[in-house]
Amino acid sequence: MTATHFERFVSEALTAERETDCQLTPDELYGLYTSWCLINKTQPQPPAALWASLKDQGIAPDSCELAMTGPAAADYILASAPSLI
User: Does the pTM of the predicted model rise above 0.85?
Assistant: First the structure.
């Protein structure tokens, strides 16, 4: 069985392997998702579709305790704080 678009996003851009002392907000999750889509040259889906998929995968979009990881995390962080470049 192949992973869905959103399952690939979760496996490539989110991790539970690192401890985090803060939760990702819905805006941060969607920003990370759009960065992942840009890197993977795929069209982002609307936020409601992402939230539904995350909920199906057992991830609460309003209280996500997973950490960002991978190229999408770096892209999102740099895009969010252009003064760091």
Answer: yes
